């Protein structure tokens, strides 16, 4: 069991050192972060308040 875990860890570390994989992970993380902010009601209310304030200033 430990052997399988160590092999998976080493394989993951090999992928993580590739710049292409890191860029892909960064884009994936940014996308998921935006989706998480849209889904969380508290952050959605903050964004709506900021947009309303900006609309009032115009």
TrEMBL record:
The chain crosses the membrane at residues 15-34. This is Putative membrane protein YfcA. The lineage of its organism: Bacteria, Bacillati, Actinomycetota, Actinomycetes, Streptosporangiales. It comes from the Bacteria. Keywords: Membrane, Transmembrane, Transmembrane helix.
